[in-house]
Amino acid sequence: MNSLQQRNIRKAFFALTLSLFMVGLIGCEAPLDLALVEREIDLPIHRFDQLKAAASNHQRIVTVGDFGTVLTSVDQGESWQRTQLPSKSSLISVASCEDGSFAAIDTVRKVWITDAEGGDWRAVQLETMESPMSISCDPHGRLWVTASFSTLIQSDETRENTGRKSLSKRICSLPQSSGWIRNTPS
To answer: Would you identify the CATH topology of the domain 46-168?
Structure first.
């Protein structure tokens, strides 16, 4: 037997061994069972949720996170109801207002507002290019959004109109990461 024949026999033996190994692997595959996946989807809190912030109006807790996730509890966190906002953007901050309503901010510059029941969320687009970072609500019902580059955005009492104020000259540095914002009349 010459070397060419020996090489061909080795190649054939290798191909046969590899084929038998692959058949063995395919035969060992478990059947696909999606029941666990379906049960996970039905849960109000998913194990992959990335929650960012929470607020309470003393009657309900609202927690927000990635992919437009809003979790609401009316029993101090014992059980939760899940809502997915139509915008799958990340919600990064939420605030409770004096009237019990909630406001949240997302990463694509939208403020999401709902009533005290936390049911219907409606979006208001921010007119800024800065990246929003947090939201709060003052006693007069105005929303305040902090954004990059020391930007503060304020809504009026109806929360429909927003006025933009840059506070880069009004933020003072205090020792060790403390600071304050002063509202000066214009």
So the answer is: Methylamine Dehydrogenase; Chain H (2.130.10)
Q: Tokens for 5, please give them.
A: 């024949």
56 burial level (CB within 10 Å; 0-12, 13-18, 19+): middle
Percent with pLDDT over 70 in the chain: 75
Strands ordered across the beta sheet of 151-155: 132-137, 143-147, 151-155, 162-166
Q: CA 145 to CA 125: how far, in whole Å?
A: 12
- Output the DSSP codes for 8-41: HHHHHHHHHHHHHHHHHHHHTPPPP--HHHHHHH
Contact 155, 143 (CB under 8 A): yes
- DSSP E strands, 20-142: 51-56, 61-65, 69-73, 81-84, 91-96, 102-106, 110-114, 122-125, 132-137
pTM > 0.70: yes or no: no
Q: Using 50, 70 and 90 to split pLDDT, how confident is the model at 175?
A: very low
Tell me which amino acid residue 23 is.
V
Q: Between β-strands 151-155 and 162-166, what pairing exists: parallel, antiparallel or unpaired?
A: antiparallel
Provide the residue ranges of all domains of the chain, joining segments of one domain with +.
1-29, 46-168
**Residue 3 belongs to what H/E stretch?**
helix 3-27
pLDDT, one tens digit per residue, over 80-116 is 888 889 888 899 999 999 999 999 999 999 999 998 8
Hey, what are 49's tokens?
């949720």
